[in-house]
Amino acid sequence: MWYWIGYSLSWVWFRLFFRLRVVGMGRIRDSWERGGVLIACNHTSYFDPPMVGVAYRKKTAFLARKTLFKKGFFGWLYPRLNAIPVDQERPDFTSLKRIIKELRDGNPVLIFPEGQRSEDGRLLDAQPGVGLVIAKTRAPVLPVRAYGAYEAYPRGARWPKLFTRITLCVGEMIEFGDGELEVRGKEGYQKVADKVMAGIAAIDGP
Question: Which of 23, 74, 94, 109 is deepest in the core (most CB within 10 A)?
Answer without folding.
Answer: 109
